Amino acid sequence: xxxxxxxxxxxxxxxxxxxxxxxxxxxxxxIDVFSAGTRPSTVHPLAVRAMAERGIDISQQRSKxxxxxxxxxxxxxxxxxxxxxxxxxxxxxxxxxxxxxxxDPAAAEGSEExxxxxxxxxxxxxxxxxxxxxxxx
Length: 137
Fold this sequence. Notes:
By secondary structure, the chain is an alpha/beta fold. A 4-stranded parallel beta sheet has the order 2-1-3-4. Helix 1 links the parallel strand 1 and strand 2.
């Protein structure tokens, strides 16, 4: 049976969206991946651009509220921001909670190129953590 993983963040606009795209790409058919937020907004255009540079299209992903997933079983629930870790509800079933804190690239200031560089940095940090986690499974 496939593993089910839910990645949570506050806005479900950047970190969790990039993590969803990366994990889906890295794990292939082994894992069903979902992302959601405690206060969803929209998928950030710079997250879409940073992922497109890796050949991963997240432009069709949408920002979702975690309430959409409360009645579903997950093997792991990964929080990628401190706020979501604090407000993450208990999920039914065997869901193991994992918390990784990444800075919010959407909060970056400066020119578009400077902000995109922050998105790339966070994308790469998330990818590194996901690769190590997958190797440990």
